[in-house]
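---------- Forwarded message ----------

FYI, see the Spore coat protein CotH record below. Original note from H. follows.
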Amino acid sequence: MEWVTRNIIISPKQFELLQKNVWSPNYVQAYMVIQGKRELIKLRYRGGHTREYPKKSYEIVLKGKTYHYNAEYDDPSMIRNALSFQFFQWIGVPSPKTRHCLLKINGYNMGVYLEIEAVDKAFFRKRGIAVQSLFYAVNDNATFGLYNSDSQDKKTSLFQGYERVIGKQTDVKQLKAFILKINTLKGKQLSLYLDQRLDIDNYLRWLAGAVFTGNYDGFDQNYAVYLHKTRFKYRMIPWDYEGTWGRNCYGKQIGSDLVKVTGYNELTRSLLAFPLIRKKYKNLLNHILKQHFTVKKIAPVVKLMISRISPHIHVDSTRKWALSVFDGEPDLIRSYIIERREIIKEALKKL
């Protein structure tokens, strides 16, 4: 893939407005230079705790399409999101496309960024997926449960933890009804309901992706859930996979055994309580272990991604991590894969 530079031009007034409040959800007006021509864009900061960082991430709307430009400030490799989304595509889960680029604002080199396709109407249109509603899991209350994750008090609304992106208020009511029923129905009734309202194959593949990549935050936030328009079943899409492959979302190195193979949310617990679904999940994990989660398949992709960005990272003074750490990331990811394989193999014996 050809290396690209994204050039943004913004007036002093609009730039001042942007910087006034890093937490503002409002866009400012700017331009992106594409093939020598200025195209009007909307621009704002994005992210959670990362908005306080010296190197910030951006969201851009260009001709109705949304793109995220992630600084990946906490990830010394800068490839964890990209590698994770590639892995999800291998295992059959739709995921955002990515590419690394240089970002320039008013001619100033902001350094290396990861351009990520947004999960929105354009995402589904591009893939020929009919979508009725779409919700982002924006915090750790998106557990598909009845109780707050921190206090364990009953939620004041079953929509806590979610943000509506596509759909109407009736779609919010539908999601709340889905969450209520998976927590109150039992036995055969629950089994029939899940079969009717959830794309179980998609869900198990999404679950496996979070488990293999080691995304501890991936079960109760950092995902999108959508309702298919003609099949009327909920499906999952991964989002924000920076804290994976041996590091957490702050870049701290973590043990390869941090994430259980059975995940952590209420919907997963309900599903895996059924022996037939548990068996299906076990077979899926075995298949992924053999076909996709191998050093042989992943290491060349890591090498290619690193080699593309390495010359630019080595002259990028905006990065938080020492170059020696960046240079050691392929070995760290390789070690994670080897260790994680053995951990999952052992866990499968008891599943």
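H. also flagged this: The chain is about 40% helix and 20% strand.
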